[in-house]
Amino acid sequence: MIFYIIIVFIFGLVVGSFLNVVILRGNRGESFTRGRSRCESCGKELAWFELIPLLSFALQRGRCRSCGAALSRQYPLVEFGTGLFFTFVAIYYSPSGVEGLPLWSNPRLVFELTFAFVTLSAAIVILVSDIRWQIVPNGPVLILFLAGLVLTAWRAAVSGSFAYNFAIEFGFAFLVAFFFFALWFLSKGAWMGFGDVKLVFATSLILGFPVSVAAALFSFWIGAIFGILLLIFKKANLKTHIPFGPFILLGGVAAFFYTEEFLLYTGFSGLL
Ligand SMILES: [Zn+2]
User: Fold this and answer.
1) What is the pLDDT of residues 203-238, one digit of tens each?
2) Which of 47, 60, 215, 250 has the most beta carbons within 10 angstroms of its beta carbon?
3) Across the chain, which distance is largest between two alpha carbons, in Å?
4) pTM for the full model?
């Protein structure tokens, strides 16, 4: 078990290191398959030992070895966060680990983990891009949208009546997105961006009804609590622009785990 956790965590660190490149080059509109990584300040190409997740940052004390410029905290945070999230996902899908057998002898688990890791990676890129630059990039939203279509089709297929259930599920996701679209349109982009509308369409397809509705509700609550805390601690005023994408993602995660309890508590358990 502990071996399984360590392997997944290290795998998450390496993927996180790659996601950092995707996030930074994506924001600059560069290709992330070509060329080696460079220092953000002096442009010097990084050697292999400067690319080891977490370790390089710690050994260099967060500074470039050539020019001494401070490295972005995004590097260790995304690496560590991805490692942590991947570990949670792995434990969620396989609580006992895969002791005694090679992972690939369990194709269902391999498929679930791959699907979850890809989806999570796209969400991490969106999360960081939105926090840093108020941008919800199209590429990872498209990945989430495709993942949502696959999951919606899967749920419809096992439900027995594919066309009917797919149409209903797609319709509900569209309605949730349309609600966000209305807020975007009415506020002229002040309350949320159009990227948030696309993002919530994708996450609603992933979550399905009624989790998607709980997720939307949770995202507004989390956003409101966060906004009030910022006002109380004077970190923001009423005109401060706060990206909404992180709340959509947080609300989605909260709804994924707690929709059932929420509906039971509020008396809407008939929706399940
Ligand atoms: Zn440098």
Assistant:
1) 999 999 999 999 999 999 999 999 999 989 888 777
2) 215
3) 63
4) 0.92
Structure confidence by residue, pLDDT tens digits, 10-35: 999 999 999 999 999 888 887 766 67
CA atoms within 13 A on the CB side of 5: 8
> Is-contact 74 128, C-beta < 8 A?
yes
Q: Is the dihedral of CA 74, 79, 80, 86 positive or negative?
A: positive
Contact 241, 134 (CB under 8 A): yes
Which residue ranges make up each domain of the chain? 1-133, 138-272
State the average pLDDT for the chain.
90
Residues near 61 by Cβ (< 8 Å), separated by ≥ 6? none
Say how many C-beta atoms besides its own lie within 10 A of residue 196's C-beta: 25
Measured in Å, residue 207 CA sits from the centre of ligand 1 at 43
Distance of alpha carbon 112 from its chain centroid, rounded?
16
Q: How far is the CA of 51 from the centre of ligand 1 (A)?
A: 14
The H-assigned helical ranges of 162-193 are 162-186
Does the CA dihedral 10-11-13-14 come out positive or negative? positive
How far does the centroid of ligand 1 lie from the alpha carbon of residue 62, in Å? 11
In the numeric block, the tokens 């995004």 are attached to: 74
**High-pLDDT (> 90) share of the chain, %:** 63
Distance 27 CA to ligand 1 centre (A): 19
Can you read off the two tokens belonging to residue 217?
């509700």
Instruction: Tell me the Cα Rg of the chain.
Output: 20
Q: Residue 269 has what DSSP assignment?
A: G
